[in-house]
Design goal:
This protein has 184 residues and is of the alpha/beta class. The protein has one domain: Glutaredoxin (3-Layer(aba) Sandwich), CATH 3.40.30. The protein is 30% helix and 20% strand. A five-stranded mixed beta sheet has the order 5-4-3-8-9, with helices on both faces. The radius of gyration is 15 Å and the shape is globular. The protein starts with 10 loop residues before the first helix and ends in an 11-residue tail after the last strand. The N terminus is likely disordered.
Length: 184
């Protein structure tokens, strides 16, 4: 059976998850003071090439975590990130957009490559990453991304973090509840 996001969960599980996510999204988590060079550094992009977060210092980084087979929360978060890209383009500003997969088995370079093709995400400033499950969990913990497995489902919240050109965390928010325009 394939894993699915919150939308595919049973009603009782969805209710429990919604309560937990609401509680988690209002907390700042342990992401305050995070730096790109202090995050796990061993990642592979959708082409299978190595990419370290430290390599992105010198540019603004907008990062989220996603599950390539998600049909609800992740597409909505991606939509917010695409709107952020459009706003930055209109301002003449640049940023790297990074999506890190929650599941190292499913969110591998081949699935991320297909994900990009299916969504026509052709720009070179977008990076879809996979790593070890240990690195994924460490990154999620450091940046305040809540996720867990329920039955065969990956339950997760919607969160976006922004790092400054100096590699310092400058904002963390839930796209559904924050005025992200003010954070760019």
């Amino acid at each position: 059976m394939n894993r699915h996001c919150l939308l595919r969960a049973t009603r009782p599980a969805a209710l429990v998850c919604a309560v937990l996510l609401a509680a988690g999204s209002t907390a700042a988590a342990d992401s305050g003071g995070a730096r790109l060079d202090q995050l796990p550094q061993q990642w592979r992009d959708e082409q299978g090439q190595a990419l370290a977060f430290a390599d992105l210092i010198g540019q603004r980084v907008i990062l989220s975590m996603a599950y390539s087979r998600c049909h609800s929360i992740c597409p909505a978060t991606l939509g917010q990130m695409l709107r952020m890209q459009a706003l930055l383009d209109a301002r003449g500003e640049q940023a790297s957009f990074v999506i890190v997969g929650y599941d190292s088995d499913i969110d591998n370079p081949a699935s991320w490559r297909q994900y990009r093709v299916n969504r026509r995400l052709e720009r070179s400033n977008w990076h879809f990453l996979t790593g070890t499950q240990q690195a994924i969990r460490q990154l999620a913990r450091q940046l305040g991304f809540e996720f867990w497995t329920y039955d065969t489902h990956i339950m997760h919240d919607s969160r976006i973090v922004v790092f400054s050109n100096q590699g310092l965390l400058s904002a963390a928010f839930s796209p559904a509840s924050a005025d992200w325009l003010a954070l760019l």
